[in-house]
Amino acid sequence: MDLSEGKEKFINAWGLMGVNWGVNKTMGQIHALLLINLEPVCADDIMELLDISRGSVHQNLKCLVEWELIRKVSIEGKRKEHFEAEKDIWTAFTKIIKERKKKELEPIIKLTEELKPMQCKCPESSEFCKVIEELNLFSVKADNALENIIGSKSSWLIGNYLKMMR
Question: Is the pLDDT of residue 155 over 80?
């Protein structure tokens, strides 16, 4: 396999994995392209390299900038905006965790906090209250664990993970 085949395979695989992370395939592919590129890339080049529409490129670039997985960069002598990816994988990973927490975990915590004061007056409502309480407890613990991961250094987490695996 040559370099161009390897890049294509990586870009396609990263796009498919992105779907599992809560982003669309194109967003994942753009991120992958910028991640493996040595130099910043402009939107026109992204359109050409990935064969996607201008609107899709701009929308996905906007999302990637909001997630802080990529940033706009100015290149002297060029009018077009260029983009580069966060190359530190640990930093990118923690940014993905933050976004996933915001979209998936925090709404569950908010919902269960709102429902916790409900009065349990019958067996059915007691079961409902029990499930809500357990879901809230689990969600808060998961949120705390993710906050610890976000605030930690990759070497600390990997070291502790390896200790657990022994």
Answer: no
Cα separations in angstroms, 156 against 18, 101, 148, 159, 163: 26, 21, 11, 5, 11
Task: Find the domain containing 57 and state its range.
Answer: 3-85
- Looking at the structure, do residues 48 and 100 belong to the same domain, yes or no? no
Domains contained in the chain, number: 2
Greater model confidence, 34 or 162: 34
Q: Does residue 105 sit in the same domain as residue 147?
A: yes
Cβ atoms 36, 10 nearer than 8 A: yes
Pair 116, 76 in one domain: no
- Looking at the chain, the number of H-run helices and the number of E-run strands are 8, 3
Does residue 60 contact residue 26 with C-beta atoms inside 8 Å? yes
Show the CA angle centred on residue 75, arms to residues 69 and 77, nearest 5°.
Answer: 160
Count CB-CB contacts under 10 A for residue 83: 23
Question: Is it the case that residue 136 has pLDDT exceeding 90?
Answer: yes
pLDDT (tens digit, 9 = 90+) per residue, 66-107?
999 999 998 888 889 999 999 998 888 888 889 889 988 999
Q: How are beta strands 82-85 and 41-42 bridged, if at all?
A: antiparallel
Q: How far apart are CA 159 and CA 127, in angstroms?
A: 41
Tell me the whole-structure pTM to 2 decimals: 0.78
